[in-house]
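Hey, can you fold this one?
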Amino acid sequence: MKAALPSQIESLFSRHPALCGFSVLGLEDVPDNCPRGDGHSGFFVGDVGVSPELPDEQMREIFQEIVAAVADMLAEEPGAGESVRGRTFARVLH
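Sure. Predicted structure:
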């Protein structure tokens, strides 16, 4: 049996019906064409999938909320970094 999604992640899928999934990667997995700032938090959000396609403004909003949710989750439980790095979170369809 798989563990339940953290509440911050579960909330994203509830608030954004178009969000299908996303990946959380370590900084070593950041593509070379992406900037790396000094204020990095140790993770990179990528492979954000939505359906249907959304306007850029909504995509930016969803992306920012994903980053905030992952950061919040890591702030609450600093040891969670290793368990989310390299993981893909996806909507479960019944």
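The longest helix spans residues 56-76. Let me know if you want another pass with a different chain boundary.
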